[in-house]
Amino acid sequence: MHQSFSDNQLVEQILQGVQAEKAYTLLMARYGKLLYSQLIRLLKNEDQAKDVLQNVYIKIWTQLSSFRNDASFYTWAYRIAHNEGLNELAKNKRKDTNQLTFSSIQIQDSTSFKMTVTEQEISEWLHEAISTLPEKQALVFNLKYFEELKFSEISKITNTSEGALKANYHHASQKIETFLKEKLNLIQL
Q1: Which of 84, 101, 132, 181 has fewest C-beta within 10 Å?
Q2: Total-model pTM
Q3: Is the CB of residue 149 less than 8 Å from the CB of residue 143?
Q4: Distances in Å between the alpha carbon of 18 and those of 1, 8, 9, 30, 64?
């Protein structure tokens, strides 16, 4: 099986049973690392991410017939991984604080009132903010901000123009910034 097959061609081969396992293996080789890194970000635990990724692979295989070609395969698989990760978080009801690289942020308002916001709070707020975004904006934000992909790479993954991706990222960033500012203002009150 050759690397030049498009995602849609590979999905079609799987659904038709034409070298289905090889086609599936190729799809997972293309997107497994991205899905895994997404799960690590969400779960903040490598072992859990590996376990959930196995569930994601199974779900993708068993639900592939529900895939519609109106979105990219990666967007569809990303949504499955995201939902499985959220299910795992809900099941375990725990959050870790390994998300951000700094330990706290000092905030000072005009009255010189100082407060400390913990890394865990910021991480939780960021995930909460991302969860409020429309699906496309959340996907673009995650791929650009966390995965550090170029817009040209995201364009290939999502089958979306770079201009539209830049607009999605800009809108997502503005919404996240507004969300975080509102959180900070509530704490200062």
Answers
A1: 101
A2: 0.58
A3: yes
A4: 11, 13, 11, 19, 14
